[in-house]
Design goal:
It is a multi-pass membrane protein. It is built from 7 helices and no strands. The protein is mainly α and 215 residues long. The two termini are 33 Å apart.
Length: 215
């Protein structure tokens, strides 16, 4: 795992080191998309074209992976009756959750119309809220299911863990409050989620009996 993380970091650092050494255009002028200009200065149009193709391929891969990851999450929620049953459907040939994919695609097409900075802020706020829920679940499970066997264990006592999470949680709370009260789409999405949960009247038993296959 550590080796993988280091290799991923090197894929970012090595091109940066090479570009800094060559320093054309000057690093003080770098902006979004500057790698193409740097590649053109180092290896003419050929290298610049390869950089653009690689960027396109990596962005497309990240987009497709994220789309299907979210789609399978929606399908899993539907299988456990936490989302509309229509999202349970799978493609007979590829076994993919096509209804969930289309639903995710519709949301993406709507978000395309928003300002990019607003989308980033909203995504950061929702991600921060999600991380706070993970922190809360992490601490709660340490209390209620301390005896469970885990593939790995985070060291430290619960008070020490709470202290370690204090700064990050405070930052997440600031992000959520700042964005939710200044950006209407983020507030609408959050309120819609609460309204749906209130309408479905989810019970504690549903969350205690979650299944990976919906059975």
């Amino acid at each position: 795992m550590l080796i993988s993380v280091l290799l991923i970091a090197l894929t970012y650092l090595m091109p940066l080191f090479g570009a800094i050494v060559f320093n054309s255009p000057n690093w003080t002028t770098w902006d979004d998309g500057s790698f193409s200009s740097i590649a053109s200065a180092i290896g003419s149009t050929v290298l610049s074209t390869w950089i653009m193709l690689a960027s396109f391929g990596s962005n497309a891969g990240m987009y497709i992976a994220e789309l299907f990851c979210e789609s399978f999450q929606i399908m899993g929620m539907a299988q456990n009756e936490l989302a509309p049953a229509i999202f349970r459907a799978r493609n007979k040939r590829f076994n993919t959750p096509h209804n969930a994919v289309f639903a995710s695609l519709i949301v993406i097409l709507i978000l395309i119309e928003l300002d990019f900075s607003d989308v980033v802020n909203m995504t950061n706020a929702l991600s921060a809220y999600y991380q706070m829920l993970i922190f809360a679940a992490f601490i709660k499970l340490r209390y209620t299911h301390a005896e469970l066997k885990r593939p790995y264990k985070v060291p430290g006592s619960i008070p020490l863990l709470l202290l370690g999470l204090l700064i990050s949680t405070a930052l997440l709370v600031y992000i959520v409050v700042d964005v939710f009260f200044t950006l209407a789409p983020a507030m609408i999405v959050t309120l819609a989620g609460f309204a749906y949960a209130n309408w479905k009247r989810f019970t504690r038993v549903q969350f205690e009996n979650l299944s990976m296959d919906g059975k």
